[in-house]
């Protein structure tokens, strides 16, 4: 039993603190717990590492952080001396142990002769991407678990373009880690010694100023806010996280006069005491914001996740009650508004592009193409959007005006290559003000877009498969759908099947097989005769299979009936 040997190795390592030893001794005899912590290392992928904060090889702790950083350092050093001089930018969020983990990563980089630029305290994820680009760094490290519950932390890695690692570099790190002993194979240097020697340089407000100058340059229509500033009221919550400073700053720079921040959630706290989950995708987390909005008479609520890369909004419906706006809906609203605002401001490029993921609403494509904007699909993950954006603009094909995915992430401008809730929060608010000047709420605006472009609807189902056998269950379901693909789903014929693993396209009516450009990702796509698309893919960071329903109807009722009908089919997969 290898996990038992690994457990004993940690106990006998001689480097654990008394508290860490005590934690491991407390699980002696609990074979299931020992196995879950030591059956293997956390898998290093394009999203880096993510896990619960405990002692163990398959957990997030300072030893795993050092080990991962040594592997990353080896890859950076292999690029040559210039790469080491260009160095690494390091950032962290509000989570417990984030600063400790960030310092540990900095110490390992410094010991390997890699120059480090480290933020003095927590910063939004997009500012890390910005810093990598602004200072010409070779790479970046961000200690964050984004919107996950308080028990989690993570380790995201970036390359020189400011985007998260492409697959080939993630694979290179994974190969390095196979040969590095977690205790004896890691180089370390005292943090203050590294600072004093110039190997670690601390970043602070000067980088904030540079970043915020880029953010506020994205404003399209200051007059729209000025027209309604005296009556426009909004509520903001950072959910105890990194948006607490720069998001309000961006909103005030736009001209918001009546900004009400949820006081209980402006407190930086990695325990997230006021919410079960600090995720703006979960509307129940907005209860304090709704109470405040009702108290002050606000019609618009905005919230960002702990590392401020995702943003969610709530608006009043036609009955005056607050309802959530999905990530798909927010993206469609933003896209339609940006196209108009950029045209009015004379900022629309000659060949504009929208980038969206394969699981993002097809309504975005309809909005883009109806307005002369080319729409391109990418795989899920902003590293793929960054790669496509870089390619389009490098080759002079076109300029990307917006990139987004359904899970509340939006990338705008040229100064970041990741989700950016700071810029998105400002532009969503600009949009809300513009509509307010027309006497419309964002709810009104969304209904008008459905009338104009069609009654599109989307629903995502998460088939959670936890435990040691979870990965086996996930693999089994994907294999079954490949070997025995459905000929019909909920009584509707499947007309096209696509497998993004090998890029194959099968016309189910004629049997013809062709190839598509996108390939190399474990995703299945079923296109139905009524225009509905259903996609199935395993999550890259959590033990679950995600099933996406993308449909439309002749009206809201038919759309909603389709969503319900296909959701019942999804339930049979679990």
3D architecture notes:
40% of the residues lie in helices and 21% in strands. The protein is α/β, with parallel strands linked by helices and 574 residues long. Helix 11 crosses helix 17. The chain is globular.
For the structure shown, list the relevant keywords.
21% strand, 574 residues, single chain
Topology:
Elements: H1 2-11, H2 18-25, H3 31-38, E1 49-52, H4 62-77, H5 81-86, E2 88-92, H6 98-111, E3 116-119, H7 125-134, E4 139-143, E5 152-159, H8 167-177, H9 191-196, E6 200-203, H10 205-216, H11 222-228, E7 233-237, H12 243-254, E8 258-261, H13 287-296, E9 300-304, E10 311-316, E11 322-325, H14 327-344, E12 352-357, H15 363-370, E13 374-378, H16 382-394, E14 399-405, E15 409-411, H17 421-437, H18 442-453, E16 455-464, H19 470-483, E17 488-489, E18 492-499, E19 504-507, E20 513-515, E21 524-528, E22 533-538, E23 544-553, H20 556-571
């Amino acid at each position: 039993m290898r996990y038992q040997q690994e457990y004993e190795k940690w106990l006998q390592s001689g480097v654990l603190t008394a508290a860490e030893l005590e934690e491991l001794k407390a699980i002696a005899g609990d074979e299931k717990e020992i196995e879950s912590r030591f059956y293997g290392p956390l898998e290093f992928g394009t999203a880096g590492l993510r896990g619960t904060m405990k002692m163990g090889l398959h957990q997030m702790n300072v030893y795993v952080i050092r080990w991962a950083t040594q592997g990353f350092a080896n890859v950076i050093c292999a690029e040559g001396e210039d790469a080491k001089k260009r160095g690494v930018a390091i950032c962290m969020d509000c989570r417990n142990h984030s600063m400790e983990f960030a310092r540990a990563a900095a110490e390992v980089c410094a010991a390997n002769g890699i120059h480090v630029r480290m933020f003095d305290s927590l910063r939004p994820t997009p500012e890390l991407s910005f810093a990598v680009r602004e200072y010409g760094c070779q790479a970046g490290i961000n200690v964050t678990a984004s919107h996950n519950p308080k028990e989690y932390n993570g380790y995201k890695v970036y390359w020189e373009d400011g985007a998260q690692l492409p697959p080939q570099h993630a694979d290179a790190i994974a190969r390095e880690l196979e040969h590095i002993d977690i205790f004896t194979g890691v180089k370390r240097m005292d943090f203050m010694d590294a600072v004093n020697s110039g190997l670690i340089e601390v970043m602070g407000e000067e980088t904030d100023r540079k970043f915020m100058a880029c953010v506020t340059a994205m404003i399209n229509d200051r007059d729209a806010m000025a027209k309604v500033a005296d009556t426009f009221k909004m509520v903001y919550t950072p959910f105890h996280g990194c948006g607490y400073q720069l998001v309000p700053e961006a909103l005030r720079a736009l001209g918001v006069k009546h900004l009400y921040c949820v006081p209980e959630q402006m407190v930086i706290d990695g325990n997230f005491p006021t919410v079960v989950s600090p995720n703006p995708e979960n509307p129940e987390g907005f209860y304090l914001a709704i109470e405040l909005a009702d108290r002050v008479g606000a019609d618009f609520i905005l919230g960002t996740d702990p590392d401020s890369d995702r943003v969610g909004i709530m608006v009043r419906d036609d009955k005056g009650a607050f309802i959530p706006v999905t990530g798909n809906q927010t993206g469609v609203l933003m896209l339609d508004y940006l196209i108009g605002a950029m045209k009015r401001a004379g900022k629309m490029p000659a060949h504009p592009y929208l980038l969206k993921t394969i699981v993002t609403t097809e309504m975005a494509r309809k909005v883009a193409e109806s307005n002369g904007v080319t729409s391109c699909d990418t795989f899920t993950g902003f590293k793929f959007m960054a790669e496509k954006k870089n390619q389009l603009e490098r080759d002079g094909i076109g300029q990307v005006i917006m990139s987004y995915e359904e899970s509340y992430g939006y990338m705008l401008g040229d100064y970041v290559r990741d989700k950016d809730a700071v810029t998105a929060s400002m532009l969503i608010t600009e949009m809300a003000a513009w509509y307010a000047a027309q006497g419309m709420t964002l709810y009104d605006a969304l209904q008008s877009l459905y009338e104009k472009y069609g009654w599109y609807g989307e629903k995502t189902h998460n088939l959670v498969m936890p435990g040691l056998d979870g990965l086996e269950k996930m693999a089994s379901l994907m294999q079954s759908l490949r070997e025995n693909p459905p000929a019909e789903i909920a009584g509707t014929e499947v007309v096209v099947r696509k497998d993004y693993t090998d890029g194959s396209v099968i016309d189910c009516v004629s049997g013809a097989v062709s190839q598509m450009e996108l390939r190399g990702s474990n995703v299945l796509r079923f296109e139905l005769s009524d225009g509905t698309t259903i996609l199935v893919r395993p999550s890259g960071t959590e033990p679950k299979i995600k099933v996406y329903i993308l449909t439309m109807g002749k009206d809201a009722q038919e759309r909603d009936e389709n969503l319900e009908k296909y959701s019942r089919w999804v339930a049979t997969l679990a």
